[in-house]
Design a protein that fits this description.
alpha+beta; 7 strands; elongated
């Protein structure tokens, strides 16, 4: 695996953790119910900096697109989970990046992107540029 790819992935994971760590907590105040007189606490909610989360989301989507393409499971899962930029969405999308890192470190086979070449005929190079892999295979090149 390409060390540059792993370093970028770790940087994106750190960015997601920073967003979660900087989230503000709202709620949790002690109140008294008007009718019963019983004390209760208001529900807690977590709010992330939407500008930072949006920047992180776009960087991650670009990285995943360049690595695997738009139809890949990692890309689609990440995009779906972080579409609303909530604390929970960032947390879940961060899990996708961590799963990708684990898979890359364990060298689990990844999908590849076909590099189109002019004179390749039916034989061509299949490359995954960010992974540093280049394998010669029989494939249809349009």
């Amino acid at each position: 695996m390409n060390a540059q790819t792993l370093a970028r992935l770790e940087s994106l994971i750190d960015g997601g953790r920073d967003i979660l760590d900087s989230a503000t907590i709202r709620g949790g105040q002690l109140r008294t119910a008007f009718v019963t007189g019983n004390d209760y606490r208001t529900p807690l909610s977590y709010h992330v900096d939407t500008q930072a989360a949006s920047k992180w989301r776009i960087s991650c989507l670009h990285f995943l697109e360049m690595l695997f393409g738009l139809e890949d499971r990692y890309y689609k899962s990440f995009d779906k989970l972080v579409s609303n930029l909530s604390h929970e969405g960032v947390k879940r999308a961060l899990g996708v990046l961590e799963a990708l890192k684990d898979d890359l470190q364990q060298e689990i086979p990844m999908p590849t992107i076909i590099e189109r070449t002019e004179n390749a005929g039916r034989l061509g190079w299949i490359t995954a540029p960010y992974l540093g892999a280049r394998v010669y295979r029989h494939c249809a090149i349009n």
